[in-house]
Amino acid sequence: MLNDSELLKLLLPEYLIEYFDIIKFEEKDKVLHLYFEEKDTIPKEFSSLQLQSKGFHDEITVDDFPLRGKSVKLHIKRRRWTDTKSGKILQRDWNLIAKGTRMTQDFAEFLKKISRY
User: Which domain of life is it from (predicted)?
Assistant: First the structure.
């Protein structure tokens, strides 16, 4: 039997479930809004540094695959980290949005494929 996390990975980009917490969801005018915040786990690429979470960057909104006839908007807040020794602000290098669009990379690739037929 699937657990909640495994089920969500079938419906949403896997990295969202692995690296972000779902904060809330709501439906407005046949649009499903899903809100995510990056988890408070230090990125592997910065494991040698002493980091402290210092809040979030501004929220971005990304269009994703429709679900059950509803448009889907992903509201994503990425975490900011401060290196306690240097004071430098760091963040994960996310490639969440396809270049030149406001869609997830997976959704942009899907649209590109279907436009060929």
Answer: Bacteria
The CA–CA distances, whole Å, from 40 to 52, 55, 56, 69 equal 9, 10, 11, 33
Domain region containing 64: 4-37+56-80+95-114
Q: What average pLDDT does the segment 38-66 reach?
A: 87
23: in domain: yes
Q: How many domains does the chain have?
A: 1
Round to whole Å and give the CA distance between 86 and 65. 41
State the residue for tokens 């030149």.
Answer: 100
**Residue 73 in domain:** yes
Under 8 Å between Cβ of 63 and 73: yes
| Tokens describing residue 48 | 């040698």
Structure tokens at 109: 């690739």
| Report field, pTM of the whole predicted structure over 0.85 | no
Token readout for 84 is: 């306690």
Range in 25-34, 67-76, 84-93 the model is least confident about? 84-93
Instruction: Judge whether 27 lies within some domain.
Output: yes
